[in-house]
Amino acid sequence: MTSIDRLPPGPGPYTSLDVAPNLAAARVWLVIPCFRVRGHILRVIHKAPTWVEGIVCVDDACPEGSGDYIEAEAKDPRVVVVRLPENQGVGGATLAGYRAAAALGARVLIKVDGDDQMDLAYAAQLVAPILLGEADYAKGNRFTSISHLKTMPSIRVFGNAILSFAAKLSTGYWNIFDPTNGYTAIEANVARLVMEKRVSRRFFFETDLLYHLGTLRAVVRDVPMPARYADEVSNIRIGRIVGPFAVKHLRNLIQRVLGQYFVRDFNAASLQLIAGLFSALFGFSYALSYLAGREPGDVASAGVVMMAALPIILGAQFLLQAMNFDVLNVPSRPIHPYLQTLERLQDRGA
Predict the structure, then answer these.
(1) For residue range 40-70, what is the model confidence (pLDDT) as tens digits?
(2) Cα–Cα distance for residue pair 320/318, rounded to 1 Å
(3) What is the DSSP letter of 316?
(4) Pick from 346, 349, 339, 348: which is nearest to 16 by CA?
């Protein structure tokens, strides 16, 4: 077992992902953020597949002393303990784990929680799309089957459904669901690019990571898997995150639309957005102006009704067309093969 008290200054060296004949040669590492999971973490480590090359456990300033506990009790020689001097949240701990694993030569990074909610038997399904060159990032999806949701509390089913639609809007990944699922895998070169972004460090991490992957045009793939709930205690308080999550989704939506359709590109959807917003705002403004100035008992003429209704209808149609364009514009070509080739060329040039 290895202990790391200070992380390397940067994201660390990265090696290209060669075609691996088997999972044991793929250099896959687990990254486990640890905060108040002392009662479950050893079970998670014990269940790590034999083909996993290393396991990074990040003690996120855990009040239970998880780093010391793991070093004292875990017998797996693959375990590396990383200690953070201050609590950075699940996002900060995960990014710290990415950095440490990448510095040690990892090529694919699987993030799994330390509360034993995530079935490591599905780790191979997460890694496969990346090794096959079909995705840059893979994540679990518990909503592909009703049978997968049997153990999930009803309030969580409803909340995740709402959050999933909000995430589709704010990230642009219309092809995925269950955005808060923290069981994920990412290619190391893509992780290096993500670590340069200002990704949210707290509970919005998984969704914000998707937003930043979208700015990179990375390909994301859903992997079906069942929900697992037992005696673990969640650190999330629903009432406290609804407002902040809504604000962050709106912020990411605005930034994404401006960046994707008015800064990095200008296309049919850009024109449709302008026309749709202008038409809808004109219709609403005209209607409000008429209502504010009319005398009591006045009945609007057909012309007045059309002047208000027609722009709103046209605006809605333009906005729906822009949304349709956005749905069809989901990234489809993985970026990590390009990053690997670039890395090889740079290594040869050096």
Answers:
(1) 999 999 999 999 999 999 999 999 999 999 9
(2) 5
(3) H
(4) 339
Whole-model pTM: value is 0.86
184 with 118: CB under 8 angstroms? no
Site of tokens 């972004």: 197
Pairing of strands 184-187, 108-111: antiparallel
H helices of 25-88, in order, are: 41-46, 66-73
What ranges do the domains of the chain cover?
Answer: 2-247, 266-349
| Strand ranges of the sheet holding 28-34, from the earlier edge strand across to the other edge | 2-4, 79-83, 54-59, 28-34, 108-111, 184-187, 137-141, 220-224
pLDDT in tens, 6-26: 444 444 333 334 444 567 678
> Residue 150 has what pLDDT?
67
Query: Is a pLDDT exceeding 80 seen at residue 231?
Result: no
CA–CA separation, 292 and 300 (whole Å)? 12
Pairwise CA distance, residues 193 & 231, whole Å: 36
CATH architecture of 2-247: Alpha-Beta Complex (3.90)
